[in-house]
Amino acid sequence: MVHWTAEEKAAIASVFGKVDLEHDGGDALGRLLLVNPWTQRYFSSFGNLSNASAIAGNAKVQAHGKKVLGAINNAAHHLDSIKVDLHDLSSDHANRLHVDPENFRRFSEVFVIVLANKLGSSFTPSVQAAIEKFFAVVVDGLSHGYH
Length: 147
Ligand code: HEM
Known about the structure:
Blueprint: H1 6-18, H2 24-35, H3 52-56, H4 59-76, H5 82-85, H6 87-96, H7 102-119, H8 125-143
Helix pairs in contact: 1-8, 2-4, 2-7, 7-8
Bound molecules: protoporphyrin IX containing FE.
Protoporphyrin IX containing FE binds near residues 71, 72, 89, 97 and 99.
Protein name: Hemoglobin subunit beta-2-like
Pfam family, one: Globin
Keywords: Heme, Iron, Metal-binding, Oxygen transport, Transport
């Protein structure tokens, strides 16, 4: 099982205490779709994703980002059961949605950038390290259904 230090737990709790569950997930998903345009192929039912303002104003992107962030927030509150908790979601992404698991890592990268923009100087290197460890565990959990 992954070991979390008291400092890592405090950093993760502090960051997720400041996350905006309504909007930050949509911002991160929007950034993923712009920075890695080929990821748009998974969201062909979402309508216009042709440029930054279309993506920012796309209600389906916002709603889906909120759903994704909800799952991540849940993981942040249950650090010791992430792998088990993400089991079904992982199988779903592997077997039904056929999402290349490399995209989970890309999503975590853009999410870190959303957090850095939002939190500014409070997003210190040690907070970043704790968040990156957290995302590595989430990505691992989501990728588990693939092997
Ligand atoms: C659906 C979580 C990353 C593609 C979902 C759902 C959740 C979720 C909670 C809804 C499941 C349901 O309705 O049963 C996550 C988490 C991610 C992640 C926690 C963290 C990294 C990604 C990435 C992609 C992706 C990177 C593709 C690039 C999809 C698609 C759906 C979906 C296509 C179905 C959307 C729809 O048509 O409603 N995901 N996801 N996910 N996810 Fe993910």
